[in-house]
Amino acid sequence: MDVKAAQRLQLSAVVQPERFGRRPPFSTCRLGVSREPQSLRVFVSPMMMRRRTTALEVSSSYDNISGMMGSGKTTVGKIMSQVLGYSFCDSDALVEEEVGGNSVADIFEQHGETFFRNKETEVLHKLSLLHRLVISTGGGAVMRPINWKYMHKGVSVWLDVPVEALAQRIAAVGTNSRPLLNYEAGDPYTRAFMRLSAIFEERGEAYANANARVSLKKIAIKLSKRDVSELSPTDIAIEALEQIDNFLKGEGGGYAEC
Fold it and tell me: What keywords were assigned to this record (predicted)?
C-alpha cells in the first residue's frame, strides 16, 4: 500500500460521520486576536492501522474554503476542523452576527449587496489575524482582490462542484435563503441552473486564485463513483486535506489540484 492510500485509510477511519450526532466535533470561532502558534501536528492513528501512525503537519495560520453556493463548504469545513483540531468559522454567519443576527437574505434585502460585501471584507480581515481556523467563505467573496489578500494569509481551497449538481442540491432545499437566486422564473431546478451558470461564468477565474482545487468530478472518478452525488462530505474533506498537504510540501510554489 502506497503512502497516499494509507493516509486516505487513516483519515477515513478518524473522520466518522456518526460522531457528529453525539456532540459537536468542532469549536466555533469568535473574532479577536489569538496568540496560538501557527503550526499544529496532528497524529491520526485508527484501530485498523495501530502500528502505522501518520503525522500530518499543517504549517499555515488557517485554511479557507471557497466555492459556489451549495458546494458544501460548511459541511466539509467542519469535518476538516475536526481532523486538524482547529476551530471552524463561517464568514456568512459572522456577518449575520455583525448585523444584529439578520440572515444574509435579509441583509441583501434591507441594506443591499454592497453593504453585505463590505461587511464580509471586514470579517475576513479580522479572521486573517487569527490562527488555527478552518473558514468557510461566502460564495462571492472571491470577487474582491482585497479579500484574496486576507485569504492568502492561510491556504485557500476551492471546492469545484459541477453546476448541475449544485442546481439539484439547491432546488431540493429551496432558494429562499439564496438572495442571488430569487429573481429567476421557472421550476426550481431550471431557475437554479440558469442563475448558477451565469454566476460561475462571472466568478470562475476568481475561484482559480485558490492554492488548491478540489474537483468533485475527479474525486468521483478516482473513487469509482457513478457521479458526484455519491461522494460523501468525508470523501471531499479527505481530498481537501491531501491537497493542502501537497501544496505545503511544495512550499507554496505551485497549484495543487485533484
Answer: Amino-acid biosynthesis, Aromatic amino acid biosynthesis, ATP-binding, Kinase, Nucleotide-binding, Transferase
